[in-house]
UniProtKB/TrEMBL annotation:
Gene3D superfamilies: 3.30.300.30, N-terminal domain of ligase-like. The keyword Transcription does not apply. InterPro entries: AMP-bd_C (IPR025110), AMP-bd_C_sf (IPR045851), AMP-binding_CS (IPR020845), AMP-dep_synth/lig_dom (IPR000873), ANL_N_sf (IPR042099). This is Long-chain-fatty-acid--CoA ligase.
Length: 608
Protein backbone atom coordinates (compact mmCIF):
# COMPACT_ATOMS: atom_id res chain seq x y z
CA UNK A 1 0.00 0.00 0.00
CA UNK A 2 1.15 3.52 -0.71
CA UNK A 3 2.29 5.70 2.21
CA UNK A 4 -0.54 8.15 1.51
CA UNK A 5 -3.10 5.34 1.87
CA UNK A 6 -1.58 4.21 5.17
CA UNK A 7 -1.68 7.75 6.52
CA UNK A 8 -5.25 8.23 5.37
CA UNK A 9 -6.52 4.94 6.80
CA UNK A 10 -4.60 5.45 10.03
CA UNK A 11 -6.03 8.91 10.43
CA UNK A 12 -9.50 7.64 9.62
CA UNK A 13 -9.32 5.40 12.67
CA UNK A 14 -8.84 8.37 15.01
CA UNK A 15 -11.91 8.94 17.14
CA UNK A 16 -13.43 12.24 18.20
CA UNK A 17 -13.73 15.70 16.72
CA UNK A 18 -11.14 15.08 13.99
CA UNK A 19 -13.31 12.57 12.17
CA UNK A 20 -16.40 14.74 12.58
CA UNK A 21 -14.49 17.69 11.16
CA UNK A 22 -13.34 15.60 8.20
CA UNK A 23 -16.91 14.57 7.45
CA UNK A 24 -18.06 18.16 7.67
CA UNK A 25 -15.39 19.50 5.30
CA UNK A 26 -15.35 16.45 3.04
CA UNK A 27 -18.78 14.77 3.17
CA UNK A 28 -17.63 12.14 0.69
CA UNK A 29 -14.77 10.89 2.89
CA UNK A 30 -16.79 8.00 4.34
CA UNK A 31 -17.53 6.68 0.84
CA UNK A 32 -13.90 7.10 -0.19
CA UNK A 33 -12.74 5.04 2.79
CA UNK A 34 -15.23 2.33 1.89
CA UNK A 35 -13.86 2.19 -1.66
CA UNK A 36 -10.26 2.13 -0.40
CA UNK A 37 -11.10 -0.74 1.95
CA UNK A 38 -12.74 -2.68 -0.89
CA UNK A 39 -9.82 -2.10 -3.25
CA UNK A 40 -7.38 -3.25 -0.55
CA UNK A 41 -9.41 -6.41 0.01
CA UNK A 42 -9.50 -7.21 -3.71
CA UNK A 43 -5.77 -6.54 -4.02
CA UNK A 44 -4.88 -8.79 -1.10
CA UNK A 45 -7.00 -11.67 -2.38
CA UNK A 46 -5.58 -11.38 -5.89
CA UNK A 47 -2.05 -11.35 -4.47
CA UNK A 48 -2.78 -14.41 -2.34
CA UNK A 49 -4.41 -16.37 -5.17
CA UNK A 50 -1.80 -17.66 -7.59
CA UNK A 51 -3.50 -20.90 -8.67
CA UNK A 52 -5.48 -21.53 -11.86
CA UNK A 53 -9.27 -21.52 -11.83
CA UNK A 54 -9.34 -25.24 -12.65
CA UNK A 55 -7.18 -25.92 -9.57
CA UNK A 56 -9.78 -24.16 -7.42
CA UNK A 57 -12.59 -26.18 -8.97
CA UNK A 58 -10.81 -29.49 -8.44
CA UNK A 59 -10.14 -28.56 -4.82
CA UNK A 60 -13.85 -28.01 -4.13
CA UNK A 61 -14.80 -31.13 -6.11
CA UNK A 62 -12.68 -33.08 -3.61
CA UNK A 63 -13.78 -31.15 -0.49
CA UNK A 64 -17.52 -30.78 -1.15
CA UNK A 65 -18.25 -33.48 -3.77
CA UNK A 66 -21.99 -33.76 -3.12
CA UNK A 67 -22.77 -30.05 -2.93
CA UNK A 68 -24.76 -28.69 -5.90
CA UNK A 69 -22.47 -26.79 -8.24
CA UNK A 70 -25.16 -26.19 -10.90
CA UNK A 71 -28.93 -26.01 -10.65
CA UNK A 72 -30.44 -26.20 -14.13
CA UNK A 73 -34.11 -26.73 -14.98
CA UNK A 74 -34.72 -28.06 -11.44
CA UNK A 75 -31.92 -30.62 -11.82
CA UNK A 76 -28.94 -30.66 -9.44
CA UNK A 77 -25.41 -31.24 -10.72
CA UNK A 78 -22.91 -31.77 -7.91
CA UNK A 79 -19.29 -30.64 -7.90
CA UNK A 80 -18.29 -34.30 -8.14
CA UNK A 81 -20.54 -35.05 -11.12
CA UNK A 82 -19.38 -32.00 -13.07
CA UNK A 83 -15.76 -32.91 -12.33
CA UNK A 84 -16.32 -36.46 -13.59
CA UNK A 85 -17.89 -35.18 -16.82
CA UNK A 86 -14.99 -32.72 -17.21
CA UNK A 87 -12.56 -35.64 -16.87
CA UNK A 88 -14.40 -37.49 -19.63
CA UNK A 89 -14.12 -34.44 -21.89
CA UNK A 90 -10.43 -34.02 -21.07
CA UNK A 91 -9.63 -37.65 -21.89
CA UNK A 92 -11.49 -37.40 -25.20
CA UNK A 93 -9.71 -34.20 -26.22
CA UNK A 94 -6.36 -35.64 -25.09
CA UNK A 95 -6.91 -38.57 -27.45
CA UNK A 96 -7.09 -36.05 -30.30
CA UNK A 97 -3.48 -35.17 -29.61
CA UNK A 98 -4.26 -31.74 -28.14
CA UNK A 99 -2.56 -30.27 -25.09
CA UNK A 100 -1.46 -27.07 -23.33
CA UNK A 101 -1.80 -23.84 -25.32
CA UNK A 102 -3.76 -25.44 -28.15
CA UNK A 103 -7.14 -23.84 -28.85
CA UNK A 104 -10.62 -25.37 -29.22
CA UNK A 105 -13.71 -23.37 -30.18
CA UNK A 106 -16.87 -23.83 -28.10
CA UNK A 107 -20.34 -22.88 -29.42
CA UNK A 108 -22.94 -23.46 -26.70
CA UNK A 109 -26.18 -22.19 -25.31
CA UNK A 110 -26.48 -22.01 -21.52
CA UNK A 111 -26.42 -25.61 -20.27
CA UNK A 112 -24.40 -27.67 -17.76
CA UNK A 113 -22.49 -29.32 -20.62
CA UNK A 114 -20.90 -25.96 -21.37
CA UNK A 115 -19.29 -25.86 -17.94
CA UNK A 116 -17.97 -29.40 -17.89
CA UNK A 117 -16.69 -29.04 -21.45
CA UNK A 118 -14.92 -25.80 -20.57
CA UNK A 119 -13.46 -27.27 -17.37
CA UNK A 120 -12.36 -30.38 -19.27
CA UNK A 121 -10.35 -28.21 -21.67
CA UNK A 122 -8.90 -26.30 -18.71
CA UNK A 123 -7.67 -29.57 -17.16
CA UNK A 124 -5.41 -29.92 -20.20
CA UNK A 125 -4.38 -26.27 -20.32
CA UNK A 126 -6.27 -25.78 -23.60
CA UNK A 127 -7.54 -22.32 -24.53
CA UNK A 128 -11.29 -22.18 -25.17
CA UNK A 129 -12.63 -19.77 -27.81
CA UNK A 130 -16.11 -18.89 -26.51
CA UNK A 131 -18.08 -18.23 -29.68
CA UNK A 132 -21.34 -16.24 -29.63
CA UNK A 133 -24.06 -18.85 -30.13
CA UNK A 134 -26.17 -16.38 -32.14
CA UNK A 135 -23.63 -16.05 -34.97
CA UNK A 136 -24.17 -17.42 -38.43
CA UNK A 137 -22.39 -17.45 -41.79
CA UNK A 138 -19.42 -15.07 -42.19
CA UNK A 139 -19.30 -13.75 -38.57
CA UNK A 140 -19.29 -17.36 -37.33
CA UNK A 141 -16.51 -18.39 -39.73
CA UNK A 142 -14.50 -15.30 -38.83
CA UNK A 143 -14.82 -15.89 -35.08
CA UNK A 144 -13.65 -19.51 -35.30
CA UNK A 145 -10.71 -18.83 -37.62
CA UNK A 146 -9.60 -15.69 -35.76
CA UNK A 147 -8.69 -17.81 -32.71
CA UNK A 148 -6.52 -20.27 -34.66
CA UNK A 149 -8.55 -23.20 -33.33
CA UNK A 150 -7.76 -26.89 -33.84
CA UNK A 151 -11.25 -28.34 -33.28
CA UNK A 152 -14.79 -27.08 -32.70
CA UNK A 153 -17.17 -28.48 -30.05
CA UNK A 154 -20.83 -27.54 -30.51
CA UNK A 155 -23.46 -27.83 -27.79
CA UNK A 156 -27.04 -29.08 -27.98
CA UNK A 157 -29.58 -27.34 -30.15
CA UNK A 158 -30.91 -27.70 -33.69
CA UNK A 159 -30.10 -24.04 -34.36
CA UNK A 160 -26.44 -24.56 -33.45
CA UNK A 161 -26.23 -27.68 -35.58
CA UNK A 162 -27.80 -25.85 -38.50
CA UNK A 163 -25.48 -22.85 -38.13
CA UNK A 164 -22.31 -24.97 -38.11
CA UNK A 165 -23.31 -27.21 -41.02
CA UNK A 166 -23.98 -24.10 -43.14
CA UNK A 167 -20.36 -22.97 -42.84
CA UNK A 168 -18.41 -26.22 -43.05
CA UNK A 169 -16.78 -25.22 -46.34
CA UNK A 170 -15.49 -22.00 -44.78
CA UNK A 171 -13.86 -23.68 -41.77
CA UNK A 172 -11.12 -25.47 -43.68
CA UNK A 173 -9.72 -28.54 -41.93
CA UNK A 174 -11.45 -27.95 -38.59
CA UNK A 175 -12.90 -31.10 -37.03
CA UNK A 176 -16.42 -30.50 -35.74
CA UNK A 177 -17.91 -32.44 -32.80
CA UNK A 178 -21.56 -31.92 -31.87
CA UNK A 179 -23.26 -32.72 -28.57
CA UNK A 180 -26.92 -33.54 -28.07
CA UNK A 181 -27.46 -35.89 -31.02
CA UNK A 182 -27.86 -38.94 -28.80
CA UNK A 183 -28.34 -42.02 -31.01
CA UNK A 184 -29.06 -39.95 -34.13
CA UNK A 185 -26.46 -40.06 -36.89
CA UNK A 186 -24.34 -36.95 -37.36
CA UNK A 187 -24.74 -34.93 -40.56
CA UNK A 188 -22.03 -35.24 -43.17
CA UNK A 189 -18.94 -33.27 -42.18
CA UNK A 190 -19.46 -33.38 -38.39
CA UNK A 191 -18.98 -35.99 -35.65
CA UNK A 192 -21.20 -36.83 -32.69
CA UNK A 193 -19.59 -36.20 -29.31
CA UNK A 194 -22.17 -38.18 -27.33
CA UNK A 195 -20.90 -41.73 -28.07
CA UNK A 196 -17.41 -40.64 -27.02
CA UNK A 197 -18.74 -39.40 -23.68
CA UNK A 198 -20.54 -42.69 -23.09
CA UNK A 199 -17.51 -44.94 -23.60
CA UNK A 200 -14.85 -42.72 -22.02
CA UNK A 201 -14.08 -43.33 -18.35
CA UNK A 202 -13.88 -40.35 -15.93
CA UNK A 203 -10.24 -41.03 -15.18
CA UNK A 204 -8.68 -38.06 -13.37
CA UNK A 205 -6.23 -35.91 -15.31
CA UNK A 206 -2.96 -35.32 -13.50
CA UNK A 207 -2.29 -31.61 -12.82
CA UNK A 208 1.24 -32.19 -14.12
CA UNK A 209 -0.24 -32.01 -17.64
CA UNK A 210 -0.68 -28.26 -17.13
CA UNK A 211 2.26 -27.77 -14.78
CA UNK A 212 4.01 -25.41 -17.16
CA UNK A 213 1.12 -22.96 -17.35
CA UNK A 214 1.11 -19.65 -15.49
CA UNK A 215 -1.45 -16.96 -14.78
CA UNK A 216 -0.12 -15.14 -17.85
CA UNK A 217 -1.15 -17.99 -20.17
CA UNK A 218 -4.47 -17.82 -21.98
CA UNK A 219 -7.53 -19.43 -20.46
CA UNK A 220 -10.01 -18.41 -23.14
CA UNK A 221 -11.02 -15.90 -25.77
CA UNK A 222 -14.12 -13.82 -25.07
CA UNK A 223 -15.29 -11.88 -28.09
CA UNK A 224 -16.23 -8.25 -28.26
CA UNK A 225 -19.82 -7.69 -29.32
CA UNK A 226 -18.98 -6.81 -32.89
CA UNK A 227 -21.32 -3.80 -32.86
CA UNK A 228 -18.64 -1.80 -34.67
CA UNK A 229 -17.51 -4.58 -37.01
CA UNK A 230 -16.70 -8.28 -36.84
CA UNK A 231 -16.25 -9.81 -33.36
CA UNK A 232 -12.68 -9.64 -32.05
CA UNK A 233 -11.30 -12.33 -29.70
CA UNK A 234 -10.10 -10.60 -26.54
CA UNK A 235 -7.24 -12.33 -24.73
CA UNK A 236 -8.43 -13.64 -21.34
CA UNK A 237 -5.50 -14.98 -19.34
CA UNK A 238 -5.78 -17.35 -16.41
CA UNK A 239 -4.95 -14.40 -14.20
CA UNK A 240 -7.63 -12.15 -15.70
CA UNK A 241 -10.29 -14.85 -15.34
CA UNK A 242 -9.28 -15.38 -11.73
CA UNK A 243 -9.18 -11.64 -10.97
CA UNK A 244 -12.67 -11.09 -12.39
CA UNK A 245 -14.03 -13.76 -10.06
CA UNK A 246 -12.21 -12.38 -7.04
CA UNK A 247 -13.48 -8.88 -7.78
CA UNK A 248 -17.03 -10.18 -8.14
CA UNK A 249 -16.73 -12.15 -4.91
CA UNK A 250 -15.60 -9.06 -3.03
CA UNK A 251 -18.24 -6.78 -4.57
CA UNK A 252 -21.02 -9.20 -3.63
CA UNK A 253 -19.49 -10.56 -0.37
CA UNK A 254 -20.06 -14.00 -1.89
CA UNK A 255 -20.06 -16.95 0.52
CA UNK A 256 -20.13 -20.75 -0.09
CA UNK A 257 -23.79 -20.87 0.89
CA UNK A 258 -24.78 -18.31 -1.76
CA UNK A 259 -26.68 -19.16 -4.92
CA UNK A 260 -25.84 -17.01 -7.96
CA UNK A 261 -28.48 -16.69 -10.70
CA UNK A 262 -26.92 -16.59 -14.18
CA UNK A 263 -29.25 -15.81 -17.08
CA UNK A 264 -26.69 -14.07 -19.28
CA UNK A 265 -25.12 -16.00 -22.19
CA UNK A 266 -22.14 -18.07 -21.08
CA UNK A 267 -20.04 -16.69 -23.94
CA UNK A 268 -20.30 -13.23 -22.36
CA UNK A 269 -17.77 -11.80 -19.90
CA UNK A 270 -20.50 -10.80 -17.43
CA UNK A 271 -21.57 -14.42 -17.05
CA UNK A 272 -17.97 -15.40 -16.43
CA UNK A 273 -17.66 -12.90 -13.60
CA UNK A 274 -20.36 -14.89 -11.83
CA UNK A 275 -19.09 -18.34 -12.85
CA UNK A 276 -15.51 -17.58 -11.84
CA UNK A 277 -16.65 -16.17 -8.49
CA UNK A 278 -18.72 -19.28 -7.72
CA UNK A 279 -15.90 -21.65 -8.68
CA UNK A 280 -13.46 -19.82 -6.42
CA UNK A 281 -15.91 -19.71 -3.52
CA UNK A 282 -17.54 -23.13 -3.65
CA UNK A 283 -20.92 -21.47 -4.23
CA UNK A 284 -23.81 -22.70 -6.40
CA UNK A 285 -24.68 -21.50 -9.90
CA UNK A 286 -28.38 -21.34 -10.76
CA UNK A 287 -28.06 -21.48 -14.55
CA UNK A 288 -30.91 -20.44 -16.85
CA UNK A 289 -30.97 -21.51 -20.47
CA UNK A 290 -32.45 -18.19 -21.55
CA UNK A 291 -33.69 -15.07 -19.78
CA UNK A 292 -37.43 -15.05 -19.09
CA UNK A 293 -39.01 -12.00 -17.47
CA UNK A 294 -42.04 -13.99 -16.28
CA UNK A 295 -39.92 -16.78 -14.76
CA UNK A 296 -37.16 -14.62 -13.28
CA UNK A 297 -38.54 -14.01 -9.79
CA UNK A 298 -40.29 -17.41 -9.49
CA UNK A 299 -36.89 -18.99 -10.25
CA UNK A 300 -35.23 -16.83 -7.60
CA UNK A 301 -37.82 -17.83 -5.01
CA UNK A 302 -37.83 -21.55 -5.87
CA UNK A 303 -34.05 -21.88 -5.82
CA UNK A 304 -33.42 -19.43 -2.95
CA UNK A 305 -31.19 -17.22 -5.09
CA UNK A 306 -29.15 -14.68 -3.13
CA UNK A 307 -27.13 -12.93 -5.86
CA UNK A 308 -28.21 -11.93 -9.36
CA UNK A 309 -26.25 -10.54 -12.29
CA UNK A 310 -27.77 -8.06 -14.71
CA UNK A 311 -26.69 -6.14 -17.78
CA UNK A 312 -28.19 -3.46 -19.96
CA UNK A 313 -31.95 -3.48 -20.19
CA UNK A 314 -32.66 -6.73 -18.30
CA UNK A 315 -34.44 -4.95 -15.45
CA UNK A 316 -36.63 -3.01 -17.86
CA UNK A 317 -38.28 -6.29 -18.85
CA UNK A 318 -38.81 -7.18 -15.19
CA UNK A 319 -40.57 -3.95 -14.27
CA UNK A 320 -42.75 -4.31 -17.39
CA UNK A 321 -44.25 -7.45 -15.81
CA UNK A 322 -47.56 -7.00 -13.94
CA UNK A 323 -46.94 -6.03 -10.29
CA UNK A 324 -47.36 -8.84 -7.78
CA UNK A 325 -47.59 -9.08 -4.02
CA UNK A 326 -44.68 -11.53 -4.34
CA UNK A 327 -42.34 -8.92 -5.87
CA UNK A 328 -40.53 -8.46 -2.57
CA UNK A 329 -40.73 -12.11 -1.52
CA UNK A 330 -37.24 -13.26 -2.43
CA UNK A 331 -33.82 -13.88 -0.88
CA UNK A 332 -31.81 -11.70 -3.26
CA UNK A 333 -29.48 -9.50 -1.23
CA UNK A 334 -27.38 -7.99 -4.05
CA UNK A 335 -27.70 -7.34 -7.77
CA UNK A 336 -24.41 -6.78 -9.60
CA UNK A 337 -24.10 -5.56 -13.14
CA UNK A 338 -23.77 -2.63 -15.50
CA UNK A 339 -25.84 -0.49 -17.82
CA UNK A 340 -28.75 0.10 -15.40
CA UNK A 341 -30.33 3.42 -16.28
CA UNK A 342 -31.29 5.84 -13.56
CA UNK A 343 -35.04 5.79 -14.22
CA UNK A 344 -35.15 1.98 -14.19
CA UNK A 345 -32.92 1.82 -11.11
CA UNK A 346 -35.32 3.90 -9.04
CA UNK A 347 -38.29 1.79 -10.06
CA UNK A 348 -36.43 -1.46 -9.37
CA UNK A 349 -35.42 -0.28 -5.89
CA UNK A 350 -38.97 0.71 -5.01
CA UNK A 351 -40.66 -2.38 -6.39
CA UNK A 352 -38.31 -5.28 -5.64
CA UNK A 353 -36.56 -3.99 -2.49
CA UNK A 354 -33.13 -5.42 -3.33
CA UNK A 355 -30.85 -4.32 -0.44
CA UNK A 356 -27.89 -3.48 -2.69
CA UNK A 357 -27.64 -2.71 -6.39
CA UNK A 358 -23.93 -2.60 -7.24
CA UNK A 359 -23.21 -1.04 -10.62
CA UNK A 360 -19.78 -1.29 -12.21
CA UNK A 361 -18.19 -0.07 -15.42
CA UNK A 362 -15.53 -1.96 -17.34
CA UNK A 363 -14.92 -3.85 -20.57
CA UNK A 364 -14.19 -7.43 -21.57
CA UNK A 365 -10.72 -6.39 -22.72
CA UNK A 366 -10.33 -3.57 -20.19
CA UNK A 367 -7.43 -3.05 -17.81
CA UNK A 368 -9.49 -1.69 -14.94
CA UNK A 369 -13.01 -1.07 -13.68
CA UNK A 370 -14.89 1.32 -11.44
CA UNK A 371 -17.87 0.55 -9.23
CA UNK A 372 -20.78 2.17 -7.46
CA UNK A 373 -21.45 0.28 -4.22
CA UNK A 374 -23.52 3.06 -2.63
CA UNK A 375 -26.95 2.42 -4.19
CA UNK A 376 -26.66 5.75 -6.01
CA UNK A 377 -28.99 5.56 -9.05
CA UNK A 378 -27.40 6.40 -12.39
CA UNK A 379 -23.76 6.32 -11.32
CA UNK A 380 -21.43 3.68 -12.74
CA UNK A 381 -18.55 4.34 -10.38
CA UNK A 382 -16.75 6.63 -8.02
CA UNK A 383 -13.63 8.69 -8.77
CA UNK A 384 -13.25 11.43 -6.21
CA UNK A 385 -10.14 13.66 -6.28
CA UNK A 386 -8.73 11.67 -3.36
CA UNK A 387 -9.28 8.27 -5.00
CA UNK A 388 -7.77 9.46 -8.26
CA UNK A 389 -4.75 10.78 -6.38
CA UNK A 390 -4.19 7.46 -4.63
CA UNK A 391 -4.83 5.31 -7.69
CA UNK A 392 -1.67 3.47 -8.77
CA UNK A 393 -3.08 3.14 -12.28
CA UNK A 394 -5.11 6.34 -12.74
CA UNK A 395 -8.18 6.81 -14.87
CA UNK A 396 -9.32 9.95 -16.67
CA UNK A 397 -12.10 11.46 -18.73
CA UNK A 398 -10.63 13.40 -21.64
CA UNK A 399 -11.82 15.55 -24.52
CA UNK A 400 -12.20 13.66 -27.76
CA UNK A 401 -13.17 13.77 -31.41
CA UNK A 402 -16.78 12.63 -31.71
CA UNK A 403 -16.19 11.30 -35.21
CA UNK A 404 -13.25 9.04 -34.34
CA UNK A 405 -13.57 8.52 -30.54
CA UNK A 406 -9.87 9.46 -30.30
CA UNK A 407 -8.60 11.83 -27.56
CA UNK A 408 -7.83 15.40 -28.51
CA UNK A 409 -4.38 16.79 -27.67
CA UNK A 410 -3.20 20.16 -26.40
CA UNK A 411 -0.32 22.15 -27.89
CA UNK A 412 2.14 19.93 -25.99
CA UNK A 413 0.62 16.77 -27.42
CA UNK A 414 -1.03 15.69 -24.17
CA UNK A 415 -4.62 14.60 -23.51
CA UNK A 416 -7.00 17.21 -22.12
CA UNK A 417 -9.00 16.37 -19.00
CA UNK A 418 -12.64 17.46 -18.96
CA UNK A 419 -14.32 19.55 -16.28
CA UNK A 420 -17.15 18.51 -13.96
CA UNK A 421 -20.37 18.13 -15.94
CA UNK A 422 -18.56 17.78 -19.26
CA UNK A 423 -18.69 14.49 -21.18
CA UNK A 424 -15.33 12.80 -21.65
CA UNK A 425 -13.79 9.68 -23.15
CA UNK A 426 -12.84 7.14 -20.46
CA UNK A 427 -9.19 6.08 -20.53
CA UNK A 428 -7.15 4.16 -17.96
CA UNK A 429 -3.43 3.60 -17.50
CA UNK A 430 -2.20 0.15 -18.49
CA UNK A 431 -0.38 -1.58 -15.58
CA UNK A 432 3.33 -2.08 -16.21
CA UNK A 433 3.13 -5.83 -15.65
CA UNK A 434 0.86 -6.13 -18.71
CA UNK A 435 3.32 -4.35 -21.00
CA UNK A 436 6.04 -6.35 -22.73
CA UNK A 437 8.65 -4.62 -24.86
CA UNK A 438 6.48 -1.53 -25.07
CA UNK A 439 3.48 -3.52 -26.34
CA UNK A 440 0.17 -4.42 -24.74
CA UNK A 441 -1.80 -7.19 -26.47
CA UNK A 442 -5.57 -6.96 -26.22
CA UNK A 443 -6.87 -9.04 -29.12
CA UNK A 444 -5.81 -12.16 -30.98
CA UNK A 445 -5.76 -10.16 -34.20
CA UNK A 446 -3.67 -7.61 -36.07
CA UNK A 447 -1.27 -5.20 -34.42
CA UNK A 448 -3.38 -2.36 -35.82
CA UNK A 449 -6.47 -3.52 -33.88
CA UNK A 450 -4.44 -3.57 -30.66
CA UNK A 451 -2.75 -0.22 -31.26
CA UNK A 452 -6.08 1.44 -32.05
CA UNK A 453 -7.14 0.88 -28.42
CA UNK A 454 -4.02 2.49 -26.94
CA UNK A 455 -3.33 6.12 -26.08
CA UNK A 456 0.42 6.63 -25.91
CA UNK A 457 2.09 9.61 -24.19
CA UNK A 458 -1.29 10.59 -22.77
CA UNK A 459 -0.03 12.77 -19.92
CA UNK A 460 3.66 11.92 -19.65
CA UNK A 461 6.29 10.70 -22.13
CA UNK A 462 6.15 6.92 -22.45
CA UNK A 463 2.91 6.28 -20.55
CA UNK A 464 0.29 4.00 -22.11
CA UNK A 465 -3.44 4.35 -21.50
CA UNK A 466 -6.27 2.21 -22.85
CA UNK A 467 -9.14 3.85 -24.70
CA UNK A 468 -12.37 2.21 -23.50
CA UNK A 469 -14.33 3.96 -26.24
CA UNK A 470 -17.18 5.06 -23.92
CA UNK A 471 -18.24 8.56 -22.95
CA UNK A 472 -18.93 9.22 -19.26
CA UNK A 473 -19.80 12.39 -17.37
CA UNK A 474 -18.31 13.68 -14.13
CA UNK A 475 -21.09 14.36 -11.61
CA UNK A 476 -19.26 15.81 -8.62
CA UNK A 477 -17.27 12.97 -7.11
CA UNK A 478 -19.31 10.30 -8.91
CA UNK A 479 -19.25 9.29 -12.55
CA UNK A 480 -22.53 8.93 -14.46
CA UNK A 481 -23.18 7.50 -17.91
CA UNK A 482 -26.06 7.66 -20.43
CA UNK A 483 -26.95 11.02 -18.89
CA UNK A 484 -28.88 12.23 -21.92
CA UNK A 485 -30.92 9.03 -22.08
CA UNK A 486 -31.72 9.32 -18.37
CA UNK A 487 -33.06 12.82 -18.94
CA UNK A 488 -35.21 11.79 -21.91
CA UNK A 489 -36.75 8.73 -20.22
CA UNK A 490 -37.99 10.94 -17.38
CA UNK A 491 -40.81 11.99 -19.74
CA UNK A 492 -44.02 10.11 -19.02
CA UNK A 493 -44.64 8.99 -22.60
CA UNK A 494 -41.08 7.76 -23.32
CA UNK A 495 -40.38 4.06 -22.80
CA UNK A 496 -36.76 3.96 -23.98
CA UNK A 497 -34.18 6.37 -25.42
CA UNK A 498 -31.12 5.16 -27.32
CA UNK A 499 -28.72 8.09 -27.77
CA UNK A 500 -25.83 8.08 -30.27
CA UNK A 501 -23.82 10.31 -32.60
CA UNK A 502 -24.33 10.59 -36.37
CA UNK A 503 -22.16 12.05 -39.09
CA UNK A 504 -23.20 15.25 -40.89
CA UNK A 505 -22.20 15.46 -44.57
CA UNK A 506 -19.48 18.07 -45.04
CA UNK A 507 -19.20 18.77 -41.31
CA UNK A 508 -16.62 17.78 -38.70
CA UNK A 509 -17.63 15.82 -35.62
CA UNK A 510 -21.04 14.29 -35.01
CA UNK A 511 -24.51 15.42 -34.07
CA UNK A 512 -26.55 13.86 -31.30
CA UNK A 513 -29.47 11.63 -32.28
CA UNK A 514 -31.92 9.59 -30.24
CA UNK A 515 -34.11 6.64 -31.15
CA UNK A 516 -37.27 6.67 -29.05
CA UNK A 517 -39.80 4.01 -28.18
CA UNK A 518 -42.99 5.06 -26.42
CA UNK A 519 -44.96 3.63 -23.54
CA UNK A 520 -48.07 1.69 -24.51
CA UNK A 521 -51.03 3.92 -25.30
CA UNK A 522 -48.93 6.97 -26.19
CA UNK A 523 -48.13 8.58 -29.54
CA UNK A 524 -45.51 11.04 -30.74
CA UNK A 525 -47.81 13.83 -31.81
CA UNK A 526 -47.42 17.65 -31.84
CA UNK A 527 -48.06 17.87 -28.08
CA UNK A 528 -45.41 15.25 -27.23
CA UNK A 529 -42.87 16.71 -29.68
CA UNK A 530 -43.31 20.15 -28.10
CA UNK A 531 -42.92 18.68 -24.61
CA UNK A 532 -39.82 16.76 -25.71
CA UNK A 533 -38.25 19.94 -27.10
CA UNK A 534 -38.96 21.98 -23.97
CA UNK A 535 -37.67 19.17 -21.76
CA UNK A 536 -34.29 18.79 -23.49
CA UNK A 537 -33.80 22.57 -23.64
CA UNK A 538 -34.51 22.89 -19.94
CA UNK A 539 -32.57 19.86 -18.71
CA UNK A 540 -29.59 19.61 -21.09
CA UNK A 541 -26.82 22.01 -22.13
CA UNK A 542 -26.88 22.99 -25.79
CA UNK A 543 -24.05 20.65 -26.80
CA UNK A 544 -25.90 17.63 -25.33
CA UNK A 545 -29.30 18.22 -26.95
CA UNK A 546 -30.11 15.60 -29.60
CA UNK A 547 -30.50 17.23 -33.01
CA UNK A 548 -32.40 14.32 -34.55
CA UNK A 549 -35.12 11.97 -33.30
CA UNK A 550 -36.04 8.59 -34.74
CA UNK A 551 -39.32 7.04 -33.59
CA UNK A 552 -39.01 3.24 -33.31
CA UNK A 553 -41.92 0.87 -32.82
CA UNK A 554 -39.68 -1.43 -30.75
CA UNK A 555 -36.31 -0.97 -29.06
CA UNK A 556 -33.34 -2.69 -30.73
CA UNK A 557 -31.61 -4.81 -28.08
CA UNK A 558 -28.67 -7.25 -28.35
CA UNK A 559 -28.66 -10.79 -26.99
CA UNK A 560 -27.07 -9.45 -23.81
CA UNK A 561 -29.74 -6.76 -23.31
CA UNK A 562 -27.57 -3.89 -24.48
CA UNK A 563 -28.93 -1.16 -26.72
CA UNK A 564 -27.85 -1.88 -30.29
CA UNK A 565 -26.39 1.24 -31.88
CA UNK A 566 -24.35 0.08 -34.87
CA UNK A 567 -27.15 -0.08 -37.45
CA UNK A 568 -28.78 3.06 -36.05
CA UNK A 569 -25.52 5.00 -36.35
CA UNK A 570 -24.91 3.63 -39.85
CA UNK A 571 -28.36 4.68 -41.09
CA UNK A 572 -28.21 8.05 -39.30
CA UNK A 573 -30.93 10.40 -40.55
CA UNK A 574 -30.78 9.21 -44.16
CA UNK A 575 -34.42 9.39 -45.23
CA UNK A 576 -33.68 6.97 -48.06
CA UNK A 577 -32.68 4.25 -45.57
CA UNK A 578 -34.77 5.04 -42.51
CA UNK A 579 -38.42 4.07 -42.79
CA UNK A 580 -39.25 5.23 -39.27
CA UNK A 581 -40.52 8.79 -38.65
CA UNK A 582 -37.65 11.31 -38.31
CA UNK A 583 -37.66 14.69 -36.58
CA UNK A 584 -35.17 17.51 -36.02
CA UNK A 585 -34.61 20.12 -33.34
CA UNK A 586 -36.53 23.10 -34.70
CA UNK A 587 -35.53 26.21 -32.74
CA UNK A 588 -37.66 28.50 -34.91
CA UNK A 589 -40.87 26.67 -33.97
CA UNK A 590 -39.66 25.59 -30.51
CA UNK A 591 -40.41 21.93 -31.14
CA UNK A 592 -39.13 18.82 -32.88
CA UNK A 593 -40.41 19.03 -36.46
CA UNK A 594 -40.74 16.23 -39.06
CA UNK A 595 -37.65 15.82 -41.21
CA UNK A 596 -38.49 15.55 -44.92
CA UNK A 597 -36.51 15.50 -48.16
CA UNK A 598 -37.65 19.02 -49.04
CA UNK A 599 -36.15 20.68 -45.99
CA UNK A 600 -33.18 18.37 -45.30
CA UNK A 601 -30.67 20.23 -47.50
CA UNK A 602 -31.80 23.61 -46.22
CA UNK A 603 -31.64 22.41 -42.64
CA UNK A 604 -28.11 21.02 -42.90
CA UNK A 605 -26.70 24.10 -44.62
CA UNK A 606 -28.36 26.62 -42.32
CA UNK A 607 -28.36 24.97 -38.92
CA UNK A 608 -25.23 22.89 -38.72
Amino acid sequence: MKLSEKILLGSAGTAGAGVIAWRTMFPWIRDDLKVIKLVRQIGKEIQASQSLLIDKFEKFAAQIPHKPFIIFEDNLFSYELVDQMACRVANIVKSWGLGPRDCVAMIFHNEPAFLWTFLGLQKLGITAALINSNLKMHPLIHSVLAANTKHVIVGSGDDLLGAITEVLDGLGNQKIYVQGLGSLPAPTGVHSFDPLLQVTLPVAISPTVRAGLTLADLSCYIYTSGTTGTPKPALISNGRLSRSGITTRCLTSLKPEDRYYVVLPVFHSAAWMALSACIQTGATVVLKQKFSASQFWPDCRRHKVTVIHYIGELFRYLIAQPPSELDTQHSVRVALGNGLRKDIWVEVSKRFKIPLIAEFYGATEGVTAICNIFNKPGAVGRLSPLLNKLDEYPKALVKFDYATAVPLRDKNGRCIRVSVGEPGLFIAKVPEYLIQNGQFRIYQSSAEANEAKLVRDAFEPGDIYMNFGDVLVWKGENVSTTEVANVITALEFVHDANVYGVEIPGKEGRAGMMALTLNEGHKLGPKELKELYEHVCQELPSYARPIFVRHLDNAIITSTFKQQKFDLVKEGFDINKVKDPLYYLDSERSTYSPLSASDLTKFISSRL
